[in-house]
Amino acid sequence: MEETLKQQPSTCLKIVLFGPESTGKTTLAKQLAIYFNTLWVPEFMRGYLQKKWDEKGEKCEIIDLIPIAEGQMKAENEAAKKANKVLFLDTNLLEIKTYSEFYYNGFCPPEIDTCINESKYSLYFLTGIDVPWEIDDLRDRPDEREKMFCIFETQLTNYNLRYEVLTGSKSQRFDSAVKIIQELIKEKNGC
């Protein structure tokens, strides 16, 4: 099973949009992919759980975590083969782990944790909670945004991952992200 959760080697920069629900990750991932003429990977969990909700009126259960993680890694690995120097990810396994531990009393399938430790990303953009919360079928924590932001930031710190916090309007976040990514590209190219 762990083989389906493993990140495949890639030469592209991998940038993860990371943070609590309704903080603009999807919007920013799409904008950045267009700007840098490359691909972005949608959050597999969202489609998976929306389908489950629409068909059965059910929410996420522990048994859903591995299929969600496998779907996310499969999409990431496929996109990394086709990306143009940079790949934007609307989430990754660390986000799945963060939600799993929050909703299931600290539990996360050990296979997911193992693969998190083996995966490499160039940078995480931690998206701030200073944008309006938007309701949908899956979002359920409008009053716990600050708490969730702290949980997400703690995960990044615990794993000693490189990250930048993005706040402000959509255009401010986009402009900040572009500058940071351009610097990363220069770093990678040795310029």
From TrEMBL:
It holds the Pfam family AAA_28. InterPro entries: NAD_biosynth-regulator, NadR/Ttd14_AAA_dom, P-loop_NTPase. Signal peptide: none annotated. It comes from the Bacteria. The keyword Transferase applies. Residues 14-173 form the NadR/Ttd14 AAA domain. SUPFAM superfamilies: P-loop containing nucleoside triphosphate hydrolases. Keywords: Nucleotidyltransferase, Transferase. GO terms for molecular function: nucleotidyltransferase activity. This is Nicotinamide-nucleotide adenylyltransferase, NadR type. It comes from Ulvibacter litoralis.
